[in-house]
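Sample A.
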Amino acid sequence: MTADDVRRAVTRIAHEVLERNHGLDGVALVGMQTGGVPLARRLAAELERIEGTAVGVGTLDATFYRDDIGLRPLVPEAVTDISFDLSGLTVVLVDDVLFTGRTVRAALNALNDYGRPRAVQLAVLVDRGHRELPIRPDYVGKNLPTARHELVDVSDAGVDLGTATAPGGAGTPAFGEEAGSGPRREDRAQ
């Protein structure tokens, strides 16, 4: 996907969110750290451009809610910042790449610490398949079949498919990240 493809996908997802929810009343976005945060902000800006109404945006790090704690080293990605009560809202959980579904499952558990949403919807830029849990996105920018060992790198320049690198290896930076940061979490490849 090129940068223009990503822009069009974000615009399409914004229209789908508006259609499904009949506007933005009672809707909030929560970006999953790290790749989903800039995407959630971009989606919020597009929703505001289309609808003329701002939507609340929060950020969520679900590292300590994962089901593989103790199986691999886990390091918190970034700060969770949800400055509003989620109770009664429709929360659109946003991430850049959906892979096994385990990070989304962790995020669903983490959201409960911030209230009981009326509903949770999932928006992803790329669905690469290989699900290990029964999780399916409500909004998808692109279905991108991959091999399990391949990486999907999302950046301002678009979406690139590559092979796994050694830990600490350089990759394409995500939206708003510095070059050389590499893959941000295990959802990118196994």
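Sample B.
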Amino acid sequence: MKRGILGKVLMTAALVVGAAAAADGGSSGGRGGLADRVRHEILMYSNYTLWDDISFRVDNGNVSLIGAVSQPYKRSDLQRIVQHIPGVASVTNELKVLPVSFQDDRLRLQVARAIYRDPVLSRYAMGAIPSIHIIVDNGKVTLTGVVNNTMEKQVAGIRASSAGLSFGPVINNLAVENPPAKKG
């Protein structure tokens, strides 16, 4: 009997503390909370694709959008979305709109096929927004995003370079989540 009552009291206390912590985390105007909300809204943007590279900085309620988008309307959509987040004082939109061209679209598809058909990298294609982003600007290919290790970064660069068209060198800006440990 006492065990059941004590369990209910402890469960209620845990729920109250958890609810208070969740309410405080959601309403805090702190930098971490605002950055998390901005990140969430960008990732939830329905037109965000592997052809876009969007990052941001938050400084005292001022948000700077940085990167490149594949369509002109995405630039203004993202600025509008971020402006309506509670706690955002201003938005500086430094997103570059990539040229809309048939040749760049064709190159994007060929590079994506070359990367995501590779058995080592195919798992990165499974998310709603793949973690390897392919940015094509007037035939110049840049890879951005995150991969698990150095080998996957190198394989992605090799696959992108051998996509079938002669378009010049690939800039491989992929970040490595688990870099190798340094010897010494």
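B remarks: The radius of gyration is 22 Å. Strands lie at 53-59, 62-69, 90-97, 132-137, 140-147, 171-172, 175-176.
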